[in-house]
C-alpha cells in the first residue's frame, strides 16, 4: 500500500478499489469493507471518467456547480481488460511488448494500473480541495460503454 507524504493532498492509493468483471479477471473472493468514504452521504453522485482533460473538467464543474453539502462522489472508470486494446491512450507500440511473454505483458498491465491510479487521483483533486467525500471505482471490462450503461 502506498501512502502520500504527510503534506500531500493526494488520497492514499489504498482507497482506490479495482473491481474486475470479466471471465479473465474474476472478482475477489474476500468481501470488501462496508465502511467507505461515501457510506453516510445524503446523495451519492456518480461521475463516469476516463483519463482525459474533459473528465477533469467534469469533476471540477460538478464541484463548483452541482455538488452540495452532504454529497459524496463515486468516480467510475472502466479500464479495458488489456492495455493493448484500450482507447484512452492511443495505440500501444507492439514492438516494445513481447506478446508471447506473459511476464512482459503483466509488467505492462501493472505499469498501466499504476498510471491509471495516479491519473484518477489527479482527477479527484478538486474533490479533495473541496473536502467532498469520494471513492474511485475502477472496473476492468472489455466493453467500456456496456459496463457504464448496464451497471458498474
Automatic annotation (TrEMBL):
Gene3D superfamilies cross-referenced by the UniProt entry: HUPs (3.40.50.620)
Source superkingdom = Eukaryota
Residue span of region Disordered: 1-39
Q: What Pfam families would the database entry show?
A: Usp
Q: Where is the UspA domain?
A: 43-148
Q: Which residues form the signal peptide?
A: none
Coiled-coil regions listed in the entry: none
* Protein name stated in the entry: Adenine nucleotide alpha hydrolase-like superfamily protein
Organism of origin is Abeliophyllum distichum
High-level lineage: Eukaryota, Viridiplantae, Streptophyta, Embryophyta, Tracheophyta
Amino acid at each position: 500500500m502506498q501512502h502520500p507524504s504527510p503534506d500531500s493532498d493526494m488520497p492514499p492509493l489504498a482507497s482506490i478499489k479495482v473491481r474486475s468483471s470479466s471471465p479473465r479477471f474474476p472478482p475477489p473472493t474476500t468481501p470488501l469493507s462496508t465502511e467507505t468514504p461515501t457510506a453516510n452521504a445524503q446523495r451519492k453522485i456518480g461521475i463516469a471518467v476516463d483519463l482525459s482533460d474533459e473528465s477533469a473538467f467534469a469533476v471540477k464543474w460538478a464541484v463548483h456547480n452541482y455538488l452540495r453539502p452532504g454529497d459524496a462522489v463515486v468516480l467510475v472508470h472502466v479500464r479495458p481488460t488489456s492495455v493493448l486494446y484500450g482507447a484512452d491512450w492511443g495505440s500501444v507500440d507492439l514492438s516494445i511488448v513481447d506478446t508471447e511473454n506473459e511476464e512482459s505483458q503483466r509488467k505492462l498491465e501493472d505499469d498501466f494500473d499504476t498510471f491509471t491510479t495516479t491519473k484518477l487521483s489527479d482527477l479527484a483533486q478538486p474533490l479533495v480541495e473541496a473536502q467532498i467525500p469520494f471513492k474511485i471505482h475502477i472496473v476492468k471490462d472489455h466493453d467500456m460503454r456496456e459496463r457504464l450503461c448496464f451497471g458498474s
